[in-house]
Every structure is written in structure tokens, then in C-alpha cells.
């Protein structure tokens, strides 16, 4: 499904080349729940951005479902991103001008989901994350934790084939964090491929595979379930 070969990401300065990612080889099969772990600055978020088609500035080969990503036109890449990926950002990336309801609705509009189905999906998510009373509020009226919950609801609303999550529980208290990881586990059991970047070892225990990163490289790659 996802194949990364000899992926390098670097910044050239006047005197040296600084590698953010170095010689990444990674294959992820459909239905896996993969955790990228490592300290800040090791390249976890950068790797997620490359997998999620948000970063095109890299060397190496990335193939998704048999398609070589660098061979796609911008319009094709954008369509693939919207159709196949859900993304939970560390910094939320909610649309300030839209309400909670409208933010969650956005990916459903991209996928041309009918009005009746949109209402049903959003109602279920608002209820699941106990955000019904917040549906008409704007992001600036929410706490950081509430914004994160909206971001998670938005990412899973369209039932993406691949869910990418960058520190998905970083702004949530322990009970909420566990609930979100259980939601991820349910999604994974129904076929969603999940790739999360996290510092939290307990989050990795919900997945099936643990990839440890250090200094832009993969240090180890082990099955845990």
C-alpha cells in the first residue's frame, strides 16, 4: 500500500547539508496501525507530511497503491490526498471562520457526501466526542483540548483509507486520550490504516507495529500485536 525507498529530506546551508530524514525505507500494508516514536526533532512529523502528500520536497521514491507519487500532477496528488487521507494535526489546523459543525463537515463536502448523510455522520461524531453543545461555536471559543477533539472528528468523518495522526492526544487529559486511542483501534479493526507519531509509549500499545526513530533514521521496526 505505502512504500518508501531511500527517502532523504535535507536542508542545504552555506557550509553543510543537514538531514531531517536519512535513507528511510518503510513499507506499510493496508490495515496496519503503525506508531512512529522518538524524541522531538527526529523527523516523525516530516515523515507523516511526506506520507500524507503535504511535502513534495524530498529525494527517494514514494509509492501509494502502486502509484509513484512524484509522477502525479498536482491536481492528481490533491485529489488523492482528499480521497484517501485523514490528517490530525498537532496544531489543530481548524478553519477559524467555520463553526465546529462546519469544520467537521469539510471533508464530507470534498467527498460529495449527501446532505442527509452528512447530518447523520456529524451528529454521531458530535455525540461521540460530547461536543453537541459546542457545534455552533468557532475554534477561538474552544479550549485546546476541545479543538483537538474537533480536529480528530474532522479527520475521521470521511472514513479515510489512511489516518495520519501527529501527537493526537497531546492536548487531552488521560481519560480523553484513552478514549481517542480506543476510537482509533475501532477504526483500525474496520480496515483503516493508521500511522501516528507520538511521544506516548502507552499510545503505541493500541497499535500493531512500533517504528522507533532517531536522528532522522529508523532505529528499529517491530511488530507489537
Write the layout of secondary structure elements.
Layout lengths: L1 E11 L4 E12 L4 E5 L6 H8 L7 E6 L2 E2 L5 H11 E4 L11 H11 L4 H14 L15 H14 L4 E5 L7 H16 L3 E6 L2 H4 L4 E6 L2 E7 L2
Parallel strand pairs: 3-8, 3-9, 6-7, 7-8
Antiparallel strand pairs: 1-2, 1-4, 4-5, 9-10
Description:
This protein has helices spanning about 45-50, 75-85, 100-110, 115-130, 145-155, 175-190, 200-205; strands at about 1-10, 15-30, 35, 60-65, 65-70, 85-90, 160-165, 195-200, 210-215, 215-225. The protein has a single domain (about 30-55, about 70-225), classed as P-loop containing nucleotide triphosphate hydrolases (Rossmann fold). A hairpin with a 2-residue loop joins strand 4 (about 60-65) and strand 5. The mean pLDDT is about 95. Helix 3 packs parallel to helix 5. It is α/β, with parallel strands linked by helices and about 220 residues long.
In terms of quaternary structure, the protein is single chain
- SS class: alpha/beta
Order of strands in the sheet with most strands = 6-7-8-3-9-10
Q: What share of the residues lie within helices?
A: 25-40%
Shape: globular
List the uncertain runs: none
What's the structural domain tally?
A: 1
State the order of secondary-structure elements, H for helix, E for strand: EEEHEEHEHHHEHEHEE
Please work out how many helical segments DSSP would assign.
7
CATH class: Alpha Beta
CATH architecture: 3-Layer(aba) Sandwich
